[in-house]
Amino acid sequence: MAYRYRILAALAIGALAPLASAATPPAGEIRLVSISSGQPEPILTEDLKTTQNTEFRGCFHTPLSLGMLTETFTVDPKAAPEPEQQGFSCYDPARLTEDLRTGEAIAFLSEPDITPGIDRVVAIYSDGRAYAWHQRHAAEN
User: Fold this and answer.
1) Which residues make beta-bridge pairs with 72?
2) N- or C-end of the chain: fewer Cβ atoms within 10 A?
């Protein structure tokens, strides 16, 4: 068990980045901002689905634990998904908002300034369910 934790921790901090990239679908990768480096680093994802329109939304699963994620990556306490403009069946912004408020999910900064003034944010649940979206910088909300 300790060996598995060390491997997952190494993946999370990018020490085994080629292995992490191989586990990420070719359509893209999800990255979170590392506390230590301040830079986005890829995380392990499974079943990544994203929208193809201008309003980015994503749904996926990660095998990484919330404990390891919160110790390794930047938490975003001001994350607030905007109401859905176009239907994306796996993404429910009202549920995400409530779960972030109650602490059932934790939001992480994924890609600061992915476009000027817009950050990518990822919310992750203890069972590995995860959701991503773009939002204006917290200071601009």
Assistant:
1) none
2) N
**pTM score of the predicted model:** 0.77
Tell me the per-residue pLDDT of 111-120, one tens digit each, with 9 for 90 and over.
999 889 999 9
How do 31-33 and 105-115 pair as beta strands? unpaired
Q: Which residues of 115-131 are buried (b: 16+ CB within 10 A; e: fewer)?
A: eeebbbbbbbbeebebb
pLDDT given for residue 5 in this prediction: 42
- Contacting residues for 60 by C-beta, under 8 A, at least 6 apart: 30, 45, 46, 47, 48, 49, 130, 131, 132
Q: Coil, strand, or helix at residue 23?
A: helix
